[in-house]
Specification:
The chain is mainly alpha-helical. Helix content is about 75%, strand content about 0%. The chain is globular.
């Protein structure tokens, strides 16, 4: 049997037909121009990142119950997040190299299996140290999911629509977060706290089966396959620290550190803040998180459109400023003003998520195809590791400042992100070779 691909395959995936080009400016034009293979890649990456988010949020949502069960202070609970994010930096960087060496889809399969298995293992932990270890191992898989999935889809997307396409992928984080919040409300309503946190971790395995099924039909973009064959799969860390890529890697790492330091401060501590300092019940906490998560979902989609219209740098600058302002406002709402707390959750979620929408396209455009996985995996996940200092610092400050007071530390992260952009170019409209 001939191994020559059918003549229509290249045009399906790299150059949309005239009918699709004519309608590419519609609301879903970005999706149509991906082609059949690109849409399958989109579905796989969307589902995988949603599961990634679901598994991540099982910990912050269960934090109060875990602290009571193991007798932990705020610093020890904050260490859970730090260990997860530091391990994710290692896993994400390795996944990026794997993506350049063995392919995007194969690397994604490894990440999803890793984080699903160890999320379930967390539910069987009998000591604080064991849970910390399992959470670190879960972080190895967690770290690679977004970076590799974003590259996979970016290489199918057109330059014109890449921002909104990757913004849509990013929105799946809010979908997974929302599912986790719903499951949290149900599980903690039907089980006692000493069992409920275990059940939350065990549910993290369920969606993995769906993602594995989807990815059986997903393929790498032809450009990525060709680059891997030309370079014999020689992705390496050394390559992103040579020549002009050295400056890019340093400043992209700082950008990732700032944005993720601010984001994970909020993602980790807002549920605890609502329950322990604002005195909300499980059901009411879920209601407040609904506003936050709804804002996040729309923020991802809106930010994706704005990053194509305003440019990558302007979009990040805009929402770095707005996110910092929202954190300061949210943390200083007076006691008893719970309605204002509810309403402000929407713009907080919107801004802290919209800033991420340009990341997938921006980091993909900063690196050539041969080291795109390595560059994006390293800078994004190094940012996670260093940014992990922020939620841990909040944990240690919470005993003296209160969680609400310590949350303002996250605003510093957004300031770092804004400064890092001074060392990076604008890449809007850049074609991926």
């Amino acid at each position: 049997m001939s191994t020559t691909p059918p003549p229509q395959a290249p045009s399906t995936d790299t150059h949309p037909p005239a009918t699709e080009q004519a309608s590419s400016d519609g609301a879903l034009g970005w999706l149509r121009t991906l082609g059949p293979r690109g849409r399958r890649a989109f579905a796989g990456a969307f589902g995988g990142y949603a599961l990634d988010s679901y598994d991540y949020f099982t910990l912050p949502l269960s934090m109060v119950a875990l602290a009571a069960y193991f007798g932990l202070d705020s610093g020890q609970t904050g260490l859970f997040t730090t260990v997860t994010l530091v391990a994710s930096a290692v896993g994400g960087a390795l996944a990026g190299v794997l993506a350049d060496r063995i392919g995007r889809v194969k690397a994604l399969m490894i990440t999803v299996i890793t984080y699903a298995v160890f999320t379930v293992a967390c539910g069987f932990a009998t000591t604080y140290e064991t849970l910390l270890l399992f959470r670190a191992l879960q972080g190895l898989g967690f770290g690679g999911e977004w970076a590799v999935g974003a590259i996979l889809v970016a290489e199918y997307a057109s330059a014109k629509h890449r921002g909104r396409t990757l913004g849509a992928i990013q929105s799946s984080w809010a979908v997974g977060w929302g599912l986790a919040a719903i499951m949290y409300t149900l599980v903690f309503s039907f089980f006692g706290d000493d069992v409920a946190w275990r059940v939350m971790f065990w549910t993290g395995a369920l969606p993995a089966l769906l993602v594995v099924w989807m990815r059986r039909r997903v393929q790498d973009a032809p450009t990525a396959v060709a680059a891997r064959e030309r370079n014999a799969g020689k992705g390496s860390f050394a390559a992103i620290f040579r020549g002009r890529l050295l400056r890019t890697t340093i400043f992209a790492g700082l950008l990732s550190t700032g944005v993720q330091g601010g984001y994970y401060t909020l993602a980790t501590w807002v549920p605890t803040y609502l329950k322990s300092e604002r005195g909300l019940s499980v059901v009411n906490t879920g209601g407040y998180l609904t506003f936050l998560i709804s804002g996040a979902f729309l923020g991802y989609l809106t930010g994706g459109h704005l990053t194509d219209r305003l440019g990558r740098r302007r979009n990040i600058w805009l929402f770095a400023l707005l996110s910092a302002v929202c954190i300061l406002a949210y943390a200083n709402i007076p006691s008893g003003a719970d309605t204002l707390l509810l309403i402000l959750g929407f713009p907080l979620g919107f801004c802290m998520s919209a800033i991420f929408s340009g990341f997938g396209s921006y980091l993909s455009e900063l690196y050539p195809t041969a080291v795109r996985g390595t560059g994006q995996g390293f800078t994004y996940n190094t940012g996670r590791a260093v940014g992990a200092v922020f939620p841990t610092t909040v944990g240690f400050l919470a005993d003296s400042w209160g969680v609400g007071g310590a949350l303002v530390f996250g605003a510093i992260g957004y300031g770092i992100a804004a400064l890092a952009l001074l060392g990076l170019p604008e890449t809007r409209g850049r074609e991926l070779e």
